[in-house]
Known about the structure:
By secondary structure, chain B is an alpha/beta fold. Chain B has helices spanning 77-82, 120-132, 155-164, 187-193, 209-221, 263-266; strands spanning 15-26, 29-34, 45-50, 54-59, 68-73, 90-97, 110-116, 140-146, 166-171, 201-206, 229-232, 248-249, 252-253, 260-262.
Amino acid sequence: MTNFTLSKVDLNAFIKSLSKNFDVYAPVKDHVVDGGSVRFKVVSDAKVICLSENAYYPLKELFFRKKEVLFKYSEKGLEVPVKKVKSKAILGIRRCDLHSLANQDRIYMREVPDPYYIAEREKTLLIGYHCKKAEEYCFCGSIDLQGNADIMLYELPGNKFLVEVHSDNALRLVESLKKIFKKTDIVIDAESRKIEGSNRLQKKDVHSFYDNPGWQEGIDKCLSCAACNFHCPSCYCFNIHDEANVHNMKEGERIRTWAGCQLKSFTRVAGEHIFRDTRKDRFRHRIYHQLQYFKERYGTTLCSGCGRCIRFCPTKIDFIDILNRM
Amino acid sequence: MAKKKTTIESKFLPKKVTILSYQRESADSFTIKVDFAVKHEPGQFVQVTLPGIGEAPISICSYSDKFMELNIREVGDLTKNLAKLKVGDKLFIRGPYGKGYPMKDLKGNNVIIIGGGCGVAPLRGIIDYIEQNRADYGDVKLFLGFRTPGDILFQEKIKGWGKNFDVRISVDKLPADSCFAGPVGFVTNMVKNEQIDNKNKVVFVCGPPIMMDVVIKILKEKWFNDDQIFISAERLMHCALGLCGHCMIHGKYTCLDGPVFRWDELKECKND
Amino acid sequence: MAKKDKKPVVGFYGLTGCAGCLLSFIFNENEIVSLLGMVDLAAFPFIKGKQGDKEFDIIFLEGVVCSNDDLDMLKKLRAKTKILVSLGACASTGCIPAYRNFIDEAKYLPLMYEKVHRIKDKDPKPIDAYVHVDFTIPGCPPNREEVKSFIKQLILGKTPRLYNDPVCVECKLNGNHCLLDEGKICLGPITRGGCDSVCTNGRFECWGCRGPCPDANYEAFIALIKDKGHNSRTLKERMQSFAGLKLPDELQIEDAPDYVG
């Protein structure tokens, strides 16, 4: 497909135009409410957008909701609520988060088509952003990244983006905005698609490490707070519970919420038996799910190499270090 | 971007069923028969819902596509509330889920069934299956263990099984006023003391984890191969669809790849 | 499910405390009428008489035991009810009143009101130090949702369960920025959640009012806080302020000799 250029000055016009049909989300840095962290928020002005840092919380919460009503029950029966969702355009998604989103799509759109997820996801326009340099804990270069955006933005000299278009809808959109998207012959070569300094993980096949004594190293620091689970853009586990309506106890909702495998409650069965009782067991399970189990089943690693589970771990347990030492 | 709009049904939505019969089995367990008519394999399970209380996996203890029987032990919120229901009451079910016992692949074998306590429930489905396909299997031996004579499940059924199969029952403890005449001790002792070889045999084991561990050890001493032994695993389960992650054992979803596992699939990682 | 004709007889009582926990029931403004419809409310300070001879199904008891009068009342209430619920931090962990256990008497005696000498009777303790407690609703004050949910679950025939995960879980789900990462002493990782992380939602660090999380990793947490350059005495005071009596006995927070208020 043809490539385009977009001057950063015109980003605002692009957002304004997108806003007509979409809720436009982009990474925003806020010191007052978010402690200086970057979050995906609805924006109406390009000024607030921060592309220089990856988002504190991942994108998945826009599709795989933290709390989803699976159905309402009453004496009349069960009813799945109809979701009215405004289409989303999300700008500034990094390659790692696109990989995670592709994994979530795989699970919730193809493996077990999930009407709740699909309703949120199906009309979404993804606008990716190629970050040039790895942050301290990133290791996406060690991961075979999958997943594509509809539009991909690359930094060009001269305060410009190179715009790659990957879907027909996106092409129609870009071509309809001739004033800001200019056709170009520039192409991104393989070298420029790499992200500098992101090859931290040397051992990609964890298969033989299951009984390695190295797992204990660093795990003593684990607080079992599940920050790694909730910051992870890929984790897709959940809990289900019923919530009765206090005004009429015969009515209520069945609710799905995010779950964290680092918590003891994750494997607790009747009789108070906990299958993965030690912190080591739980930690190793997470890494194995991320790097091995998912790959065995679906062909790609669940992990995207975004490094959030290390960066936002209160005690900064670096599982890459742990694996590399094994 | 935009995909063709189709209505996708929620896999979480269960179907309403009616209780056709209710049989108390012991002080803390009972069997209900419901009008949930689906094809299934012995050893599969369903997700049972009482709105407001919640949902839990229950193994199917019958083998029929006209109705379904569920043996339920009162251990949690859902099962305790199910116990309060009566014939004609409604509940919700979705399923069947999981891989059951691969009975078709095991045709021509002699069958040994070893069950402990409520673990006898899924095994009952195998017996129903064999009764309906008697010519496909050789000798059938049952070793069933219960805590006390009062805990013996399916007493009427067991009388019938005795006519066709070699049925042994033991109890762990014998109260003073009991008239139970069988052996006292763990079911594992019965298996240990029995002269059995591994020729043309498959073994189905279900019971508390510790009992299954001991049984497998005994079977290994009797030179059974790992691929002759089938066990049923228990894990916390929320979705039964291979999504929620709670039931995962070393990358295997108990709800998709189990609950019945051939021992060689699980032996390396049963505690993970 | 409870039979329609027989609602559980419920009483709310308080020992020594601020009565704030009792309000966590009242604070369900929009649901209070429905909640009162589910139960037979037989006792509530200032609202419904004490009805001394009545038998209860559930008693919610707030406050700490710090006098002989408290203990007498606690024993009487325990004898009168099938289910005793410790409501709030004082009844569950001892809370701020129990901080007195960690201070020298000479330091706090001059601070007392002159005429209220009965509070000297006993060292303040949570109610489970004296009687069997069936359920605990911790928090200073408890989350009003918890009190509501507790009653709902009992009415539905479910066993109410204490939230066992740390505060961090709800804090993350609420999308907060980690206060530990901002260098604050936030007790979230070692504190039992269920509060909907109300403090950290307002960017105020967790002080552990709901008592220790059963899976708390104290060693790692203490090392982390010291690593961030905090004084171990400050950390010890913080950890003791709400849940001091419920911390493991062998826990070493600071090496210095006993701190005197």
